[in-house]
Amino acid sequence: MRILQMMGGGDVGGAKTHIMTLIQALRERNEVMLISFRDGPFPREAAKNGINVRVIPSFNPLYCRDEVRKIIADFKPDVIHCHGGKANLVGAMLRGKKMNIPVLTTVHSDYRYDYLGNPLKQWTNGLANTIALRFLDFYQAVADRMARTLISRGFNPEKIFTIYNGMDFGNPMQGVDRAAYCKEHWDVDIAPDDVLCGIAARLTAVKDIATCVRGFAGAVKEVPQLRLFIAGDGEDEKMLRDLARDLGVADRVTFCGWVSPVNEFFASMDINLLTSVSETFPYSILEGVLEHCATICSDVGGMSELIDSGENGYIFQPRDHETLTQQLIKFGKDPARRKLFADRLYEKATREYSLDTMCRTQEANYEKLLRLYHKPKTRRDGIVICGAYGKGNAGDDAILRGIVQEMRAYDPDRPITVMSRRPDETRLLYRTNAVYTFNIFAVLWRFCHSVLYINGGGSLMQDVTSTRSLKYYLFTLDAAKKLGCKVMMYGCGIGPIRRPGNRKHTTRTINRSVDLITLRDDLSRGELTRMGIVEPEIKLAADPTIILHPASEAQMDQVMEDLGIPVDGKYLGFGLRSWNGLEAVADEIVKAAEYAYETYGLIPVFVPIEFPSDLTPARMIADRLHCPHYMIERRLPIEETIGMLARMKTVIGIRLHSLMFSAGRGVPVIGMSYDIKVDGFLKYIGSRTCIQIEEVTADKLCPLIDECVSGKLDEEVRATAALLREREHENSRGAAALIQAAEAGR
User: Fold this and answer.
1) Cis omega before residue 628 (within 30°)?
2) Per-10-residue mean pLDDT for the chain, 746 residues long?
3) Which of 379, 373, 381, 366 is nearest to 97 (CA)?
């Protein structure tokens, strides 16, 4: 692969390290050229390292563009890769059909903060970069949080890639005499028991070194052996010196100026700090990890992905100097904790954030963007997915995640559009395009450019909650078919459809417009037969959520700790929803919950599936309990919801997806049915533990709890989970067959 890298040339800090490190790694398997729009230390260092460098030292972007065109004609790159505002501006001017080369930019930092504290540059360089970014082909965000930021600002999620800074962790400094180092460089005498805290950053507003000084000043009162070394220069230096003096810690704070290289600096430190208000994935943290520093940083960029707070480091919210103080005190007083956390973080970083990992990710990103850029511009290649999405229901959100996951596994390059009540949120969560569900013109336009329309999963074909929604979904089936899409009802449940007119309308529409139906239960097949739906191919599958995985064990430990739920407890899960008749049997449910606690030590945990509406029935039951219990009163991501239910000994659910999530992870379930879809699922998995909600009594629930807790069902439940996961793949196999048939028939 031939790669043309372009940069401003004045890059310092993490951006410089990233570019230099990446180019050197890429050169081993690719042809790489670097263009710098400024002469200086960076391009000279690159040339010294054997990199093919061309310098175009001009402030005129039009001149730079013309010179780069000459280089392109000679070098013939496959990809143009920009870094920074000046390179982005030139890249935007180069981009076009005539050149036929994709232009990618790496977003190293939040462009809105790049010139924080300098209004003139914000309204000149910053504005030019902001505009140029909108005219590039692809975007590479350093850390997932920056990718989310770009999506939230309207950038196409399917043109955004993610990369993390990586390092060679194999060569830490050995045997540094830190007393001699500090004396030689800054004439500072340190005592053997001093605890050295270091921060390496530019002294500018975005780095917020003031929070570092304030946090340190609070900690040194309790741990007087702490010292702070600030490695960096910038316009805030005088303000920071004054602040240290005003807080009475000037004698414990050393301003080191610009330090390069930083290896020996970090090798001399005990604690590495970061207090920025905006970052992506700063190298200064990885450089400290290399030298086995204990780490404390603000919750910016990808830091929460690197650091598991309380396990291998500490994270605090930006500007929260009081929490920083407490974290410094913990490390300052406990050298064993510093070593333990540093070793854990080093182990994780070497595994997940190595130079080799970064290079392989970069090459994979290049390969994908080349496929996307050069694929034939066919009129139809997309997939449109419709369902009850964007309404805050974890079950529906999980359905969408499952469908998207399967479609991405089939073809990672195929564009996906979701019809959603909250399209902005959907774009952010699922990295797909999205349109408002009832924006008819946008929906029809997407149908015109798509090969497959997926209706589902869930129970969209029912008129219990609304006839209007049923008619709208039927309209979309007809419209998609007439506009040339293959049409699939995906992993769905059918009914109940009670009104005779609705049943006739549904039968006519599905028979004429649907190519394939995959069902999540047997009762739905029977309902289709009774309605006279015979034209589409019908297959038995499973709910799309079955394939989803829970959050990791370590992540769930942290989630439970944050929620105040002991990790080592035994729990009875509840997945409730408001429904007529629930209040009438509430006392019976309470008796069963207290029986489970008294007999087996199972503590009730109320897990909301639709937030916040599920809190109302949960509180109604919880308020009547006399035994300990836990209420989850915040919206959990889908993976954490599944992970929470996976930790229950058994789950009693009204919400269908509380039962599905649990059964899919091999947890015994007890259903309190309010709808045919609950009966259908429990019958489908062969469960005997189902009671109609109006018939719920403690006398019926308690024996079912006994059976679930006894272990007699364990083998059966595990087999059921495996069967469901296998059957679920019928959904994606069916979708793939429809796409292949459509494209073969062109």
Assistant:
1) no
2) 89 74 89 93 89 92 94 96 94 84 93 81 88 95 92 95 89 86 94 96 94 97 96 94 96 94 93 94 92 95 90 94 97 96 94 90 96 84 93 86 94 95 94 96 96 90 87 96 96 90 96 96 89 94 89 88 93 95 95 97 96 94 96 92 95 93 90 85 79 94 92 80 87 96 84
3) 373
H helix count then E strand count, the chain:
30, 26
Residue type, 156: N
Separation in Å, CA 508 to CA 51, 477, 493, 528, 594: 67, 11, 18, 12, 51
Cα–Cα distance measured from residue 135 to residue 89, given in angstroms and rounded to the nearest whole number: 9
Taking residue 554's Cβ as centre, other Cβ atoms within 10 Å add up to 10
* Amino acid making up residue 110: D
* Type and span of the H or E element at 737: helix 714-744
Strand order in the sheet with 416-420: 433-436, 416-420, 382-386, 450-461, 486-494, 516-519, 537-540
CB 94 within 8 A of CB 69: yes
Strands 433-436 and 416-420: parallel
The upper half-sphere exposure of residue 484, i.e. CA atoms within 13 Å in the direction of its Cβ, equals 16
d(CA 148, CA 137): 18
Residue 119: in which H helix or E strand, if any? helix 119-121
> Minimal CA–CA distance to 143: which of 13, 344, 299?
299
